[in-house]
Write the structure tokens for this entry.
Amino acid sequence: MKRIFSLLFLGLLFPAGARASNREHIFAMYPQTASVLPLRRTRGDFAMGRDLVFGIDGNPRSYASALIYLRSAAARHYAPAQTLMGLMYAKGYGLPKNDAMARQWYQLAAKQGYARAQINLGDMYAKAHAVSRDFVQAYACYASAKTNSMVGSFSYRNASSRMVTLRGRMTTVQLSAARRLVGRYQARCLAD
């Protein structure tokens, strides 16, 4: 009985003449399927890579395996994967520690408006990792992250608290320059 219902369901899903192996024909009939699959695969690759980096959901930590998944998702311009690649370079997780490479990955994600990457990039400016210490640029990155986050979210609160901390360390001249830069958005913050 289950087999009959399965065959009926497949008959409704794939009209006469369409075979499951003929992907182009099916995607022509159901274009929404074709547009969803790459994003679903990208998110799946990122999730698996993240789980392997941090040992989530019973997955043992495996940086080498995580890199395979994360590189795949990052190559498809998925900002969370690019940010995690930057973190792996910054912390030396399975890769040689390289702040310059971390900065490049963060910039790729930050250019897409990904708040976590903008915060990490601001931290690099505030702490002088792979760049010279520049509180003005750090402030601009944090302000961009705050703008690109939902009010009350972790990224929003994180960016806000870092801006407050940074204001206490900045001179009035630096603060006014940072506010001007924020008004023009991250001109140098995201520069290559």
Summary: The chain has a mean pLDDT of 81. The longest helix spans residues 31-54. Residues 48 and 69 are 7 Å apart (CA to CA). The chain is about 70% helix and 0% strand.
